[in-house]
Write a structure and sequence with these properties.
By secondary structure, the chain is α/β, with parallel strands linked by helices. The chain has helices at about 10-15, 20-30, 45-60, 75-80, 95-100, 120-140, 175-195, 210-220, 240-245, 270-280, 300-305, 315-325; strands at about 35-40, 65-70, 85-90, 105-110, 145-150, 155, 195-200, 205, 225, 230-235, 235, 255-260, 265-270, 285, 295. The strands form five sheets. It has a seven-stranded parallel beta sheet with strand order 3-2-1-4-5-7-12, sandwiched between helices. It has a two-stranded antiparallel ribbon with strand order 6-15. Strands 8-11 form a two-stranded parallel ribbon. α4 (about 75-80) links the parallel β2 (about 65-70) and β3. α8 (about 210-220) packs across α12 (about 315-325). The longest helix has 21 residues, at about 175-195.
């Protein structure tokens, strides 16, 4: 998958995010039956659904791609339907509504709560730990790929290369704890009912409208101080994250297959901001000082299985700067990656 030198509009961006690699096409060729995405209305859901649709068509496979969400905005449902994706409006915590969803052999679990978790801890646990149990009981025969997060690891030394899949979890804060709860629920049902599961520990995807680099670019462009409390981070182009996510259906297993999904580079906030500042014509303003630890994941296993991302960080940074510099629209969903206490 190649990425053009510049992306000037949302339709162009959506096309890039949904462009399947040959490997994704082969995964969709091997996949048997329909695919349903629970929580399709989130940041990655629409482009994942479109990539699955396009890859299935390129593979010559006829299947239903079904997107499930509340669809509080009917515009998204219409856009997905125009792209050949069926939509079902559903409150996933409503067990009767969940029961009415069609049986499918392949399920992509995207639902969850992070933003606004502080102050809504009960709902956070319901979405992140209770809902997976409802889904596993409803779809015991499905192959499930579920999003998790690198937050389950906690903070690690900046110089250590990041947390590996074999490292013991050490979540900080209720959001991260509830995400570990999500993993444990999927693991329990995988082990007891034989449901094949893949758990994707993602941090952080970037699609020009959101992501750590977007957060930093907006602060640099606006002359706002950049907090150095978390001085290093990982990121990955969302198109690459989409491709790996769909390819994980080939690896769903009992007990669950677990993978870190992020870019291979450890990026430093100060250096990234200085580069963004040079591209935006702004001098970054910093607050605080770098600490010796950060939330970092090691992507070695991911690269060994799926290959390196198509876009390196040095290519992604100028694209983010151009998008923000041209006042491109954003999703207004900051990552809050700088949080050290796990509050989001």
């Amino acid at each position: 998958m190649s990425v053009e030198e510049s992306t000037r509009s949302v339709p162009e961006l959506e096309q890039l995010l949904a462009r399947p690699t040959p490997e994704v096409v082969e995964t969709m060729r091997r996949m048997k039956g329909d695919l349903m995405l629970l929580g399709v209305g989130g940041k990655m859901g629409p482009s994942l659904a479109r990539m699955a649709r396009r890859a299935s068509e390129l593979a010559g496979v006829s299947r239903r791609i079904i997107g499930v969400a509340r669809f509080s905005s009917p515009q998204l449902a219409g856009e997905l339907q125009a792209g050949g994706i069926e939509t079902i409006a559903c409150d996933l915590l409503d067990e009767k509504a969940l029961e009415r969803l069609p049986d499918v052999p392949n399920l992509l679990f995207l639902a969850g709560m992070k933003f606004g978790a502080t102050g809504q801890e009960a709902l956070t646990w319901a979405m992140n730990a209770h809902l997976p149990a409802l889904v596993c009981r409803r779809f015991p025969q499905s192959r499930i790929v579920a999003f998790s997060t690198g937050n389950v690891y906690g903070l690690v030394p900046v110089t250590g290369g990041g947390s590996r899949e074999t490292d013991p979890p050490a979540p900080v804060g209720e959001y991260a704890m509830s995400c570990l709860g999500r993993e444990r629920i999927f693991e329990h049902f995988s082990r007891t009912r034989g449901t094949p599961v893949a758990l994707i520990r993602l941090n952080y995807a970037c699609d020009l409208r959101y992501g750590v680099l977007v957060d930093l670019a907006q602060k640099v462009a606006g002359g706002r101080p950049v907090d150095l409390a978390i001085g290093a981070f990982n990121t990955i182009w969302q198109g690459d994250a989409n491709a790996v996510t769909l390819r994980c259906f080939d690896h769903a297993a009992t007990p669950p297959f677990v993978i870190n999904l992020t870019g291979p580079e450890t990026l430093f906030v100060r250096e990234a901001c200085e580069r963004l500042g040079s591209l935006l014509g702004k001098k970054p303003v910093f607050a605080g000082a770098e600490q010796t630890t950060a939330l970092l994941s090691n992507s070695k296993r991911c690269i060994e299985l799926f290959g390196p991302p198509s876009m390196k960080a040095c290519e992604l940074i100028p694209r983010v700067a151009q998008w923000i510099g041209n006042s491109g629209p954003t999703l207004n969903k900051p990552t809050h990656f700088e949080s050290r206490d796990g509050k989001f």
